[in-house]
Amino acid sequence: MAKKEIIALDGDGVLLDYHTAYRFAWERAFGVLPDIVDPKAYWAMDRYAVRRLEGGERERFRQCFDHVHWSSLPALPGTVEACHRLHDAGYELVCVTAIGLEFQEARLANLRTAGFPIERVIATPMALYGDSPKVAALTELKPVAFVDDYLPYFAGIPRQVHAALILREPNGSPNVGPDLQSIDSRHEDLPAFADWWLETSRVRAQGT
Questions:
Q1: CA 43, 46, 52 angle in degrees (round to 5)?
Q2: In the beta sheet, which residues pair with residue 163?
Q3: Quick check: 122 and 94 in contact, CB under 8 A?
Q4: What is the pTM of this model?
Q5: In what order do the strands lie in the sheet containing 92-98?
Q6: Is 131 exposed, middle or buried (CB count within 10 Å of its CB: 0-12, 13-18, 19+)?
Q7: Helix (H, G, I), strand (E, B) or coil at 203
Q8: Residue 193: which pLDDT band, with cuts at 50, 70 and 90?
Q9: What does the pLDDT look like over 58-104, one tens digit per residue?
Q10: Domain ranges in the chain?
Q11: Contacts of 178 by beta carbon, 8 Å cutoff, 6+ apart
């Protein structure tokens, strides 16, 4: 049996709704559900009416990002269905996510509970500068495509991997600038990517 082609998918912002989970984490920490002030903000801190935290308050909030948090993020609209369409088309889906290794199993449990056809999660470090912390995982996986919503995480990935960027909310987005030239395709969300990828694959198959 031929080995399935792999599509690597980011977690937060591609499969799962980090913004909503951030809001509920704030409520857990401080007892107040913050209002939305900018629904088009890329960063959760800019999306909600929250203050910058320091010292004890910052640590209190950080502790809310525990196994309960990382195993209970809601799926983004249409993403479960999109993944099933890709899976049914014969692809193996692997979540390659910048999350602490101690939360890798929590993320997998989250995806299973939400109904994603994903049985493998690879946790990678987080980084703001230099090559993507996902390079090593993608080099080993050899996926046909990598889908992420954070432009810097495409830096240095193998060139043969199709780089698909999810643009999502525009305000304050890091998905701008000359590095966009290295991206192979851009999409509003994962369902849009799935539509485009499956149609492109169908047309390519008809031409062979």
A1: 110
A2: 146
A3: yes
A4: 0.93
A5: 121-124, 92-98, 6-9, 145-148, 162-166, 185-187
A6: middle
A7: helix
A8: very high
A9: 999 999 999 999 999 999 999 999 999 999 999 999 999 999 999 99
A10: 6-17+75-206, 18-70
A11: none
Structure tokens at 184: 């192979």
Is the dihedral angle over the CA atoms 190, 191, 196, 199 positive or is it negative?
positive
Q: Residues 28-48: pLDDT tens digits?
A: 999 999 999 999 999 999 999
> What is the CATH code for 6-17+75-206?
3.40.50.1000
Tens of pLDDT, residue by residue over 114-154, are: 999 999 999 997 655 556 889 999 999 999 999 999 999 99
Contact present, 11 and 99 (Cβ < 8 Å): yes
Cα dist. 152→11, 105, 123, 155 in Å? Answer: 15, 25, 17, 6
Structure tokens at 144: 């046909």
**Look-up of token digits 């203050």:** 51
Name every residue whose Cβ is closer than 8 Å to that of residue 191 and which is 6 or more positions away in sequence.
Answer: 77, 78, 79, 81, 82
